[in-house]
């Protein structure tokens, strides 16, 4: 068991999620890699259970985000108090385990590329992804209409049940369907996390001078660059990587930005679907489940029972 030193605390992991970028780290293909040996996992929530010298013991029992750089897929971790990010204690731990990375990406996509105003339309593929579901909920809070593309009828019905207003199947009819939904005005912003032909459909659904932001590439197949949209419609194609954005922030600005995405969760204005929670020792089953078609995130926990205990903190 690690012991916290001066200015450090010991955190017990309660729940950690599995992200696509976790596999990029493991495979060595992610944009920023860890020194080996390393622990996997980029996001999770834990509880402070011990403090080192010169640390106020009032932090014991507080819920905190698992420190990203040290890996979330472990039962205990020691970290400096400067790295602590307190999270709302009355929110279920399974929601807190997925509350920052994907929602932060969604928030930045909606705020950093276009000045969106009430009544504007945006379009995204992979609408049922974790980022996509966060985009839908944040857009609704901002008064923005969001058109979401999905691949199957099953996902379309699930999205409708979740509360998404505009959901279309991701096929070659998308640009004409968008014309109908938007009454000819088309979309201001397109969000692409798939690539391939899906990204072309999103580009062709944008109005003149619209912006298409790519932040993922689930489909690695090559595509023809949409020259016509670039020349005649002045569509702009840009990329976004949350880690690059974070590297340019001061600690204060980063904490403020995180507050923006945690506050709606604390106020019960947003929620994030969870598929299943696996005990940490069943990680092989969890990783297999993560490759299957599902609705929501797969989580790991040293003991799923402690998630219930976490709900009692501060009650």
Question: What does this 3D model show about the protein?
Answer:
It is a single chain. The protein is of the alpha/beta class and 315 residues long. The chain folds into 2 domains: 131 residues, Medium-chain alcohol dehydrogenases, catalytic domain (Quinone Oxidoreductase, Chain A, domain 1), CATH 3.90.180; 141 residues, 3-Layer(aba) Sandwich (Rossmann fold), CATH 3.40.50. The protein is 33% helix and 22% strand. The strands form 2 sheets. Strands 1, 2, 3, 4, 11 and 12 form a 6-stranded mixed beta sheet that branches. Strand 8, helix 7 and strand 9 form a beta-alpha-beta unit. The chain is elongated, with a radius of gyration of 20 Å. The two termini are 29 Å apart.
Question: What would you give as the CATH superfamily of the largest domain?
Answer: NAD(P)-binding Rossmann-like Domain
Classified by CATH, the class of the largest domain is: Alpha Beta
Which secondary-structure class do the elements indicate?
alpha/beta
Q: Looking at CATH, which topology of the largest domain would you report? A: Rossmann fold
Give the strand tally. 12
Low confidence ranges: none
- The tally of helices reads 12
How would the global form be characterised? elongated
| Biggest sheet record | 6 strands, mixed
Distance between the termini: 29 Å
Give the oligomer, counting copies of the same chain as homo and different chains as hetero: single chain
